[in-house]
Design brief:
single chain; alpha/beta; binds zinc ion
Amino acid sequence: MQPHGHLLLLRSYVRPAYDTEMRAVVLGSDSELGLADVAEPATPGELVTVLACGLCGSDVEKIGSTGAGTVLGHEVAARTAEGRRVALIHHAGCGACGRCLTGHESTCERFRVPTIVPGGFAERVRASGWVELPETVSDAVGTYVEPLACVLRGAERVPRGRVLVVGNGFIGRLFGAVLARRGDTVFAVDRNPLRAGAPPDGPVDAAVLCAPGGIEAAVEAVEPGGTVLVFADPRAVPGDVVYRRELTVVGSRSSTRAFMEEAVALLPELEVPEPVVLPFAEVERALALFREGSASKVVLVP
Ligand SMILES: [Zn+2]
Ligand SMILES: [Zn+2]
């Protein structure tokens, strides 16, 4: 196999009209992730060069449940043909249906269609929308626009006051930063003691579930009448507690262009965890770091 840089250099001079290949991190039939050459997609949208792509818990969950050949990655910083640095929008609602108009864009039928093809862990992708990155934000931190947008959208469903974050990994820490900034008193617990923040000193008004499982901890912590935001797979919600304590359980998933724009404006001012940046070729190491929880965020670069 040729060295990566050499390959890139060649391609910038020799550009066949069709069937151009590029490198991508591809899911194998054995549920392993590895580098492979894939065809550069011809449609839809505009061809952009990937600068960096964040590894997200939702990508890791898809390993084993998504088909071989899938290119994962949706937290993408890229450069457009005009040379602008942007954060890509990975799905979009139609903007006109009842779900979109009531703020549930991520449940729109149209939202199922990815707008980054084939996926962010590729040298180049086709993209149908983006927001421009400010100069002060690095490529790697530019990948935070997408998760931050999801957090900003989710935070709108969390009542103000004393809030417990359950699962204090990268997303939990973004929630903590966003909620503290708006004036909430934030507590955070995590199964990994190295990650835990301030434990709650009494019942809280709301809890945000940022890690799969952990719903019991969230539900048990809130005052009767309180709210639990489900931001990760809760597995089984304890319905009897919800019923007896008259809790409000709300869900939020993904983001919209409006929240991407809000995120890009907020990101330079927000204190965010440092990324661990690795090349695509080291995806297995990235995965190991993610799984052992020893890096708060892993970002891959082509
Ligand atoms: Zn994500
Ligand atoms: Zn819609």
